[in-house]
Design a protein that fits this description.
- The protein is of the alpha+beta class and 144 residues long.
- The chain has one domain.
- 33% of the residues lie in helices and 21% in strands.
- The strands form two sheets. Strands 3-4-5 form a three-stranded antiparallel sheet, with helices on one face.
- Helix 2 packs antiparallel against helix 3 and helix 3 crosses helix 4.
- It is globular, with a radius of gyration of 16 Å.
- The two termini are 16 Å apart.
Length: 144
C-alpha cells in the first residue's frame, strides 16, 4: 500500500512552518507588525513563526493567531514536553517562541478525558469582562 503526502496524518516534511508565496508572505509581514528584535533562534525545524512577531491588536490576533496556535497544537500532539509547557503557561510558551500578544489577551487550554487539547483565546474588555475571540482544537477525521 502506498501512502503519499496527501494521505498522511502528520506530513513528513522537513519543516512544520507553512510555506507562503512571496505575495502572501509580504501581506502576513505587513499585518503581523514585526517588531524587529533578534531572529537568530527562529529558524529551527519546529518554529511557530519565522520572525519575532507582535500582534498589537484584537483584529491581528483574530487574523494571525489561529495559524500560530495551529502549529503549536500540532506540535503538542507529537511532543510531550511541548504539550506540558503549553498546558502550564501558553502565553509564556508563545513568548519563548517569539510571539507576543497584547496584555488584554489570555489563553486557556482545556482538556477532558475523551478529548485532545482545546485552546481558547479570550480578550479582556474595558469593563473587565472576558470575551471569547476564538478556539482551536485538533480533530481526527476518517472517511471512506
Amino acid at each position: 500500500m502506498n501512502f503519499g503526502a496527501g494521505t498522511a496524518l502528520v506530513p513528513a516534511i522537513k519543516r512544520l512552518t507553512q510555506r507562503r508565496s512571496s505575495a502572501g508572505r509580504a501581506e502576513y509581514e505587513r499585518n503581523a507588525e514585526y517588531d524587529g528584535g533578534d531572529d537568530t533562534n527562529l529558524h529551527d525545524d519546529w518554529g511557530l513563526v519565522r520572525r519575532r512577531t507582535t500582534l498589537r491588536d484584537t483584529e491581528k490576533v483574530i487574523k494571525h493567531l489561529p495559524d500560530i496556535l495551529g502549529r503549536a497544537l500540532a506540535r503538542s500532539w507529537i511532543d510531550p514536553t511541548f504539550s506540558a509547557a503549553m498546558m502550564q503557561d501558553p502565553l509564556e510558551l508563545l513568548a519563548r517562541h517569539n510571539v507576543f500578544l497584547p496584555d488584554n489577551i489570555s489563553i486557556v487550554i482545556e482538556t477532558t478525558a475523551s478529548e485532545r487539547q482545546r485552546v481558547v483565546v479570550y480578550e479582556r474588555t474595558l469593563d473587565g469582562r472576558r470575551r471569547r475571540l476564538l478556539y482551536l482544537q485538533l480533530v481526527m477525521m476518517a472517511g471512506k
